[in-house]
Write a structure and sequence with these properties.
Length: about 260
């Protein structure tokens, strides 16, 4: 099984911490040169310094806010004019939590732009190079709400389906060029995002964070939350030559929580 990414270049979005950072770590270990994107420059600097360079991988970062679509367009053109990107990990911060009835119209628009439009702009920038190489891996970090909506995540549930529909359509169009498009759906994973969701739910329900955590864990057959590395392992596999015939799928990595088959 060929799991080597030696000589491959990867853009890893939302990679200054959490799941994105864990994916960058894994891709680097497999030999990829990683370009890390997120807003906080200090965190990016720290993150990039921790990546494996044992086979002379070369890593870099760019501080960018995905709410600025034009900045993403400019940066993606700049990056693809300098090198072929073989792996694109689409990932960033999740939309604000809350019931859908309370969601403001602009929250849907902002989340659509950050998650669908930014994915699209980045993808459009990398696909010409991927086609020339006959090798491309576009991997979207979404959520298990693609399979079944999650409580108190109204905007998120809505936008995640859009990303999944966009990705499946793209997989149908790009499969013939050796490019695959797949989605990884994290369940509850120990990151800052999970901590902030627990705190928001505790506040909303006027209960302790411990109670929220207990309810969360009770719903997971594995009886624990996941580690970012466990999500990253699946994303990294999808990036490899070995995953060449996996295309257009959404894989929950959630300790068994998703109720559907
Ligand atoms: N953790 C979970 O339990 C869980 C479960 C299901 C789905 N997910 C989803 O998986 C994705 C990653 O989650 P995570 O837990 O790793 O989140 P996280 O710890 O909050 O990390 C989010 C990453 O995205 C970057 N980011 C956030 N907003 C950005 C923006 N506007 N522009 C550019 N970069 C931005 C952050 O860095 P900066 O702040 O420096 O920009 C950070 O590197 C999210 O979509 C999340 O909703 C997570």
């Amino acid at each position: 099984m060929n799991l080597s990414l030696e000589g491959r270049n990867a853009i890893v979005c939302g990679s200054s911490q959490g799941i994105g950072f864990a994916i960058a770590e894994e891709l680097a270990i497999m030999g990829a040169n990683c370009i890390l994107l997120a807003r906080n420059e200090e965190n990016l600097k720290t993150a990039v310094a921790q990546l494996d360079i044992s086979i002379r991988q070369s890593h870099s970062y760019h501080a960018i806010d995905f709410n600025d679509v034009e900045a993403v367009r400019t940066l993606s053109k700049q990056l693809t004019s300098q090198q072929t990107i073989h792996v694109l990990i689409n990932n960033s911060g999740g939309p604000k939590a809350g019931p859908i009835v309370d969601a403001k119209e602009e929250e849907f628009l902002q989340a659509f732009s950050q998650h669908v439009i930014v994915n699209h702009v980045l993808t459009n920038a990398v696909i010409d190079g991927m086609k020339k190489e006959g090798y491309g891996r576009i991997i979207n970090i979404i959520s298990t709400s693609v399979k079944t909506p999650l409580k108190n995540l109204g905007v998120s549930n809505t936008i995640r389906w859009s990303v999944a529909a966009w990705a499946k359509t793209l997989a149908n169009e790009l499969g013939q060029f050796g490019i695959t498009v797949n989605n990884v759906l994290p369940g509850s994973t120990a990151t800052e995002r999970n901590t902030s969701l627990i705190e928001a739910n505790a506040k909303r329900q006027n209960v302790s964070t411990e109670e929220i955590k207990k309810t969360m864990i009770d719903a997971i057959p594995a009886k624990r939350v996941g580690e970012p590395e466990e999500i990253a392992a699946v994303a990294a596999f999808l990036a490899t030559p070995a995953a060449s015939y996996v295309n257009g799928v959404s894989i929950p990595v959630d300790g068994g929580r998703t109720p559907s088959i």
